[in-house]
């Protein structure tokens, strides 16, 4: 747990900013502490028989779930585009489609 947190937050002085939505903040902390219902965490704690993801392309870790899972390819792509929009203030096409073509 400590080593993983260090990989994400390498400096003790780093101020972690959590979202205003409490349930989203709780999810962030659970991902950070490896205390989720993802298969890899469940396998480690003995509540799952396998650490493998349903997509069969790897262990269902937080990183796999958020970045690499082939089962959520479009959601991951949209999330990354929205994150890039927030950082660069460039509105991605898929973001427009997602919110204005319903
Ligand atoms: Zn997967």
């Amino acid at each position: 747990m400590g080593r993983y947190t260090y990989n994400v937050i390498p400096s003790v002085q780093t101020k972690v900013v959590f979202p205003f939505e409490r349930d989203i903040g709780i999810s962030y902390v659970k991902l950070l502490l490896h205390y989720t219902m993802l298969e890899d965490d469940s396998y480690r704690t003995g509540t799952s028989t396998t650490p493998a993801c349903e997509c069969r392309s790897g262990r269902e870790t937080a990183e796999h779930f958020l970045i690499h899972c082939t089962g959520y390819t479009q959601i991951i792509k949209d999330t990354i585009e929205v994150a890039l929009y927030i950082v660069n203030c460039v509105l991605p096409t898929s973001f427009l489609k997602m919110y204005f073509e319903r």
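Residues 53, 55, 57, 60, 64, 69-71 surround zinc ion (CB under 6 Å). The chain is about 55% helix and 0% strand.
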